[in-house]
Amino acid sequence: MAEQITRRETLLRGLAATSVLAMVPDWATPALAQGDTDVKFTDIPANFNPNNPNGTTRLLDIRKIDGLITPKDQFFAIRHFNAPEIDGAAYKLKFSGMMNRPNELSLAELKAMRSTELVAGYECSGNSPRAMQGLSSNGRWTGVRLNAVLKQMGVQPKAREVVFFGTDRGDQEVVWRQQTFKLQQQFGRSITLENAMKPEPLLAYALNGQPLAREQGFPVRLIMPGWYGVANVKWLSEVHLQEERYLGNFQARWYRTLRAVGGSGQENDPQTQFVESEVTHLRLKSVIARVRKAGDAHQILGFVLNDGTPLKTVEVKIDNGPWQKATLDPANTEYSWKLFTYRWEGATPGEHTIVSRATDASGAVQETEAELGTKKTFLEHNAQFPRKVMIA
Ligand SMILES: Nc1nc2c(c(=O)[nH]1)N[C@H]1C(S)=C(S)[C@@H](COP(=O)(O)O)O[C@H]1N2
Ligand SMILES: [Mo]
What we know:
Bound molecules: ligand MTE, molybdenum atom
Mean pLDDT: 91
CATH topology of the largest domain: Sulfite Oxidase, Chain A, domain 2
CATH class of the largest domain: Alpha Beta
Number of strands: 22
Strand content: 35-45%
Number of helices: 5
Number of domains: 2
CATH superfamily of the largest domain: Oxidoreductase, molybdopterin-binding domain
Distance between the termini: 52 Å
Helix content: under 10%
């Protein structure tokens, strides 16, 4: 199985061997060149604290993005319950349900299997302008392909659904008709067997070449490239095969999107349908993250997150000007976030509004906030994100 290595890494490995730093082309060095300065965003709330808004969340400060891979200690982190502390030496990942050879694998056994590296970026489905889009990151994951492990255990013909349980658990209310059950439940998510057997899903034990940190799901988590963060179950304890759909809280209730489809979108319009759907694949989103003064021009840097569909364009608009094509970083990979840059010439002193929009090869266009207005719930907020900057 071929390892997936980004071009940037290949380039850097080559550089390490030859030490010819002068070879680095422009696009490979979004880091500040000498004399470049960051331009101030004026849309960031004064009390915005990316480091620790609360005990269970760490936002990425997107103004610090300076390369494709988010450093491990800056990778955003969020969770619902406690972050279990797991002893890697005693850890067992249990495989149960409709398989011919149910089994447990220790961390050492998983690591002894053929490993795969994959660059994947994702965001929490609750990411939005409110979090300054900081519930997003992009990492290089190492792990074992889920399909290889499932094949080894022998999937039975009736199996349709693969359920992933975390070690973490907490109080849940399960409402059934007039009854409300207050229970302790594990964090759980599921995917179809068809999705599980695709080559991408990884049982991941390393991020950027290092073991996962406790808050990142040590020792093993699922990585579903091209899916919202919630699919990437951390602190995996059990993988269960069954025939029925799994309807756990974080699958069927908490992570739902309610949209108005058709008609006027108004509640009294019989032409309008209100559709509830699961949170699964990343919806196309671009975000402007950073602006730097570089010589006479300004460089706008941003990222796109999506489900892996090739991008057609990323465009940038300055104030009321036309949409202008941005340049995609050749280091981007199929499931990475996609960095883009735009060279802004002739910026005049004062405050400006800048915004980006992504279009993919299937024709999906990132909508404006107003166009997204028929979405009633706040998850999957992938609207265009106009930014305000002050040019000195
Ligand atoms: N076991 C477990 N896995 C989990 C969660 C959780 O609460 N428990 N949160 C999910 C959500 S909502 C997101 S957005 C991602 C965040 O992953 P990160 O903390 O590595 O960024 O983890 C997902 N995996
Ligand atoms: Mo999330």
